[in-house]
Design goal:
Length: 98
């Protein structure tokens, strides 16, 4: 089971806890995790990535094992500790302002 943590606005929308567990078939990547997340919580479709292009929304970031992987290829395999559920894939809402 892959663990995913969600920011407040997304877990509020999905009416779930901060962390969700998903069954994701290998290879585990950001794309396959988001596919599973959107299948389990259809209301999240289009909130984390664009409907048409599937690109990450500008004010969301992805962290794996303490590293920002937001700009990496979403099809790239995630570390084993994410794939086996030891560490969560973190979806973080970015903060902007002046």
């Amino acid at each position: 089971m892959v663990r995913v943590t969600l920011p407040f606005h997304l877990r509020n929308l999905a009416q779930t806890e901060q962390e969700v567990q998903l069954s994701v078939a290998p290879p585990v990547s950001v794309s396959t995790v988001l596919d599973a997340l959107e299948a389990a919580y259809p209301v999240l479709k289009g909130t984390i990535r664009e409907h048409e292009t599937l690109k990450r929304r500008a004010f969301l970031r992805f962290f794996a094992c303490g590293e920002d992987i937001s700009t990496e290829d979403p099809g790239r395999s995630l570390p084993e500790s994410i794939a086996n559920g030891t560490e969560p894939l973190m979806v973080i809402g970015a903060i902007a302002g002046g």
